[in-house]
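Structure first, sequence second, as always.
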């Protein structure tokens, strides 16, 4: 049997994190008949097919499954692997059912006909950060996932194993929109020399937009970046600075922060009950994002050196700790690790081999069922709004002992030892379970980030020693 594997689905990128191996990141695209198909991630569950350049129709669900299967192969796993998939937190039940049904056509994603476990990427990301650098086990944790298609804000109850309270999707800030804004900025600088709207220029704009995306990622690490501009009859280089990028992001970022406050107010969560504010996703690598969050939440802001990988790493932890638990339902309700373990104060920074990302088939083996044209009894009443269904109501606990361990699946009680080792840029997360009665002392104080927050090495994670420590 291969080592456990965690997959994460993003609008821009797919990530695979396998025990003992470097994570693999690939664009959310598929080559097909001389063309590259994209845009299927946000179309999962849509009965209207995607149409390629040659007029061929493709079901987004099957394209998504094919892309995930390719990630399984590239990560070196097989049909015997334990797999968990982190899915976007804002996806509704109908979307999850569509993906689960499509998985049944692919043995690697549905061993013995049972689809692998699907977990909200908000829950998997919080699971990874609970393992390292550590999260509180009381209060409400606010997770901001800055992705390529938008920003998701999830409020989660730390006492209840990070059970989601509400997820809000904010479309004002996304990696794709930042790429487009940076492209417009560059074109403004060359508009006197070339007509970007001209027919001859249209074909070159796609390549220029990709250069803008790369420059955006570079500006997460350096102060300036040069963008080569090659348009018909015009070739030059435009230099952009981090300050210019910040100016493009400032307004949409403010909209995200306003929505965070509105979400807390809407759910009647007092600021004192917010024990941590967490940033994940590729956009969390942008210095302005971490700076604004650190300024507003000085004592509770948490992030990691590679925020684009957090969801996949958390999914791998789920896979390692009993992927067969809840497999019949497919959607995991809570993570298996909620305690926060201490991190050495002088932790060495991560290896630079993994530069943090800054966002940015139709061979059906089963026939389609006859469509039902009546009222959908499973329709999501919040499908047309930016907020998903409220799945829980937060009630602050006043007891002294957190009891989230009571929610562990009974299947894990008899487990003697589970080991997960996930390498991230030359460092590792090691999670073990043994019979030693000595347990680490959890901390309820989150990592305090500076501007930008100091990275914390994964090599300093102290493993839980008994199942009750998970």
């Amino acid at each position: 049997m291969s080592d456990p594997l965690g997959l994460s689905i993003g609008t821009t990128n797919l990530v695979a994190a396998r025990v003992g191996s470097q994570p693999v990141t690939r664009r959310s695209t598929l080559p097909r008949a001389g063309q590259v198909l994209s845009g299927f991630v946000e179309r999962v569950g849509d009965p209207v097919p995607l149409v390629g350049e040659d007029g061929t129709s493709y079901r987004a669900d099957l394209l998504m499954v094919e892309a995930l299967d390719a990630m399984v192969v590239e990560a070196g796993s097989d049909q015997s692997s334990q797999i968990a998939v982190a899915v976007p937190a804002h996806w509704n039940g109908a979307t999850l059912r569509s993906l689960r049904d499509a998985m049944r056509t692919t043995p690697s994603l549905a061993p013995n006909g049972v689809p692998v476990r699907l977990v909200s990427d908000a829950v998997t990301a919080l699971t990874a950060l609970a393992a390292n650098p550590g999260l509180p086990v009381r209060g409400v944790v606010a997770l901001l996932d800055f992705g390529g298609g938008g920003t998701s804000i999830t409020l989660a109850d730390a006492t209840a194993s990070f059970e989601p309270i509400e997820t809000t999707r904010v479309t004002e800030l996304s990696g794709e929109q930042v790429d487009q804004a940076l492209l417009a900025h560059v074109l403004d600088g060359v508009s006197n020399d070339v007509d970007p709207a001209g027919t001859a220029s249209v074909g070159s704009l796609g390549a220029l937009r990709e250069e803008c995306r790369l420059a955006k990622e570079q500006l997460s690490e350096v102060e300036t970046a040069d963008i080569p501009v090659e348009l018909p009859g015009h070739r030059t280089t435009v230099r952009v600075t981090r300050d210019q990028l910040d100016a493009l992001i400032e307004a949409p970022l403010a909209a995200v922060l306003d929505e965070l406050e509105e979400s807390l107010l809407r759910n009647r969560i007092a600021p004192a009950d917010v024990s941590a504010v967490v940033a994940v996703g590729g956009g969390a690598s942008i210095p302005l994002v971490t700076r604004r969050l650190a300024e507003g939440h000085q004592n509770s802001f948490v992030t990691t050196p590679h925020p684009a990988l957090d969801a996949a790493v958390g999914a791998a932890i789920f896979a390692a700790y009993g992927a067969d638990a809840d497999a019949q339902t497919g959607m995991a309700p809570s993570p298996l690790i909620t305690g926060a373990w201490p991190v050495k104060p002088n932790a060495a920074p991560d290896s630079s081999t993994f530069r943090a990302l800054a966002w940015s088939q139709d061979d059906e083996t089963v026939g389609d069922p006859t469509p039902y044209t009546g009222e959908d009894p499973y329709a999501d009443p919040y499908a047309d709004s930016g907020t998903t269904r409220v799945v829980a109501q937060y009630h602050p606990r006043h007891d002294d002992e957190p009891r989230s361990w009571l929610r562990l699946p009974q299947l894990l009680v008899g487990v003697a030892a589970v080991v997960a080792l996930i390498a991230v840029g030359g460092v590792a997360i090691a999670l073990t379970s043994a019979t030693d009665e000595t347990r680490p002392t959890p901390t309820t104080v989150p990592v305090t980030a500076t501007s930008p927050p100091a990275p914390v090495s994964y090599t300093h994670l102290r493993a839980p020693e008994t199942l009750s420590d998970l």
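Margin note: The mean pLDDT is 75.
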